[in-house]
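Lecture 7 notes: from sequence to structure.
We start with the chain below.
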Amino acid sequence: MSKESKELGSDRILRLLDLVPFLTSHQGIGISDLADQFSVTQDRILEDLSTLWMCGLPGYTPLELIDLSFDSGYVTIRNAETLAKPRALSSEEVTALLLGLNYLMDQISDADSNLREIIEKLIVKIPHTASDVHPGQVLVSHAVPATYRATLLEAIKARTHLDLIYHSLNEDEMGHRIIAPVEIRQERGVEYLLAFCFSAGDYRSFRLDRIQGISDSSQELPPTLTKSSPSVPKMPAVVRVLGSMRMASEKFQLNNSSAETVQMVEYFSEDWLMRQIMSCSGEVVLLEPSHAVLRIRQRAALALAAYSTDFKRP
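Predicted structure tokens for the same chain:
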């Protein structure tokens, strides 16, 4: 009984709103069965029915009030058309359903076309119950396909090359690489592939969840390629923090200090450095290297000019 007494008012209101359409479609249901359906005691469901008995449209005469009968132990309801429509799902409920349906879709084989069609229809229909949720906004983060992992492991064992389609976060584009995979390892819960990239002429690490396609080139891996990866030199840069030091520390792994300080950072890719600086929206300013500063200015000028109606890309 103590658990029932701690019920939030908002929870009871939602249950009352759900009771009306449920009773409308389950005329004559027993009190005990109704309590079981809503996971409450019979005393609590009787209190809810008594509350509904006093609800209705303005005027509050017997003509406007909901007509409930439950003295016999069985519930019937009339004059409740205004609340007979089931309550719309909340954004959280819609999101949970979409996540579940997307997960089920990934587990169903292509042979079960009927089941996949039903799920696809549900995914389209469900968001209409919540105006701020769109099916395209709710997607399950796909795990690495088992076929990709099997192909990588087989190539590592057979010492063969692979054609890789990879989404590079630095350039934010899809690229085609020819690689010689060496090993799969895990860091902070993320799987990486260590491989020799013939496009870069050096060893590189690839996140498995960013691999968009793999094909076996069936070429033998030269014996000179081993796990010992040559160290890739880091390049220095100088930045001035004008805003949030916490944000700057997360992006550039800076030492904790007060704002408006000049600090040295290290980077591997100039494109990555530019993207990080521009994403700070002026809270972090790049001072060196000068050629990267110039590129950022040029890119920022193009971005601003794009808002002009008479701007034409050269």
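Points to note: DSSP finds ten helices and eleven strands in the chain. Residues 9-25 form the longest helix (17 residues).
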